[in-house]
Amino acid sequence: MKREVLTIEIYDKRERTTTAMVVEKLGDNIFRLVDGRSYRVGYGEVFKARVNKDGLYEIMTVFREDTFTKRAFIVEASYSPEALQLVADEVMREGGYLELQLDYLAVVRLPKGNTFDLVDAFERNKLYVKELV
Question: In the CATH hierarchy, which top-level class contains the domain 68-132?
């Protein structure tokens, strides 16, 4: 079966926002998140969505637990984008990814069971962070 990857518009009622997300279509209104941001769905998670009256998708149910662990860090205001990219490169080599949100929040996802020391990676690159727990 051919893998079908597409971009869909997801409407979040609570936030009253619409976000474009890249998904893999698995079945009728069943998708796996490939790229994009959502509070309700993480990278790699499978969800069911319905099309609303405006033609936008709304998430109904999340089926599968994320296969990544997620950690979030507040990055100091004077951070070096180059240093942050070095950490992101290390995270990618470990099979994960780093996403900067709101210009100060580094969200890192690593495969579950990975023992990569994120705090050490930030410190080695002279980035001072505070982890959100």
Answer: alpha beta
